[in-house]
Amino acid sequence: IQQGVTTFIAALGYKHELVKQYLTTQYPGIDISYSIEAEPLGTGGAIALACGLSDVEDLFVVNGDTFFAADLQALETAHKKSGSACTLVLKPMKNFDRYGNVVINENDIVTGFLEKQYTADGLINGGIYALKPSAILQSSLPFSFSFEQDFLAPSIQLGNISGIVQDKYFIDIGIPEDFERAQTELIQNFTPYA
To answer: What is the pTM of this model?
Structure first.
């Protein structure tokens, strides 16, 4: 909202009623549609289902279990310039083994995803994307699939995935200690939308 996004689609599954109630209460008047999974569809199936509610040429996809203070305007500009099916926001990181390493070439085209292993210095997928919905909706992917493994990984073979590096604040709440850390850091460092 603070970066000028005016229309949202929340892709929800388990306990979607609670999330919908929270968003409706906390953000009255904001244009939010809801894409509800009747059964688990994987990350890709959830994105595809949500894309079916949009008629735009390009949209942003933002993971719900991470916070990355990415510059969406810069992402949009890089995505349009690249012409890629999908543009990833990449976070530089040092001394990590919790994430895979993303490799890009001099033209910012993603050339590989390396498995999780200790890496002294690299780039991780920050969980924010600019995506052409047509690339996923017009594919022959199954109803339930992994966005990372079944869409992104094969697309790099076609040179159709690009990346933009942004060294901004990032936290993944996927483990309890980082979830606890987020409770303090996000309140201290970011002004909530009011």
So the answer is: 0.92
